Amino acid sequence: MKRDMDLIRELMLELEALSVPSTDIILIAPDAIAVEGYDTQQIDYHLQLLAQAGLVDAGGADGCGMRAGPGIAFRSLSWAGHDFLDAVREQDVWEKTKAAAAKVGGYTVDILIAAAKAYVQQKITEFVHGPH
């Protein structure tokens, strides 16, 4: 299955919105999160990718070991997960980041974060100093 960064972003937004006490670890099943245009198999695969990439915190639990089926162990977004989501949260930043990354022919999470941060930095500079 091909990795879909739009789905990664949507799942991160969904997970961020969950209220999980910091002492709890819950199982996030793929059928508990609906993202329009994606089936549960695609969602499960991408939840696994979030765990593998270290974008979510399972509270020290082995996400695979806790599984009785599909899904991931989840306590919160990790620091890296928050950085990713903060970098690409705004739709216009996300679209411009993807467009810039597509021009170079491919991208990873790290490249997307770097591109999004550069775009946000440019917006901040324009806000502070005016457009160049």
SSE diagram, text form:
Elements: H1 5-16, E1 26-28, H2 40-52, E2 56-57, E3 72-74, E4 76-77, H3 79-88, H4 91-103, H5 109-129
Antiparallel strand pairs: 1-3, 2-4
Helix pairs in contact: 1-2, 1-3, 3-5, 4-5
Write up what this structure looks like.
This protein has 132 residues and is mainly alpha-helical. It has 2 domains: 5-85; 90-129, no CATH class. Helices cover 52% and strands 8% of the residues. It is built from 5 helices and 4 strands. It has helices spanning 5-16, 40-52, 79-88, 91-103, 109-129, and strands at 26-28, 56-57, 72-74, 76-77. It has a two-stranded antiparallel ribbon. A two-stranded antiparallel ribbon has the order 2-4. α1 crosses α2 (40-52). The N and C termini lie far apart (43 Å). Mean pLDDT is 83; it is low at 63-67.
- CA radius of gyration: 16 Å
Number of helices: 5
Structural class: mainly alpha
Percent of sequence in beta strands: 5-15%
Helix content: 40-55%
- Shape designation: globular
Low-confidence stretches: 63-67
Q: Mean pLDDT, as a whole number?
A: 83
Helix-strand topology string: HEHEEEHHH
From the N-terminal CA to the C-terminal CA, the straight-line distance is 43 Å
At a glance:
It is built from 5 helices and 4 strands.
Task: Give keywords.
132 residues, mainly alpha, 2 domains, two-stranded antiparallel ribbon, 5 helices, 52% helix, globular
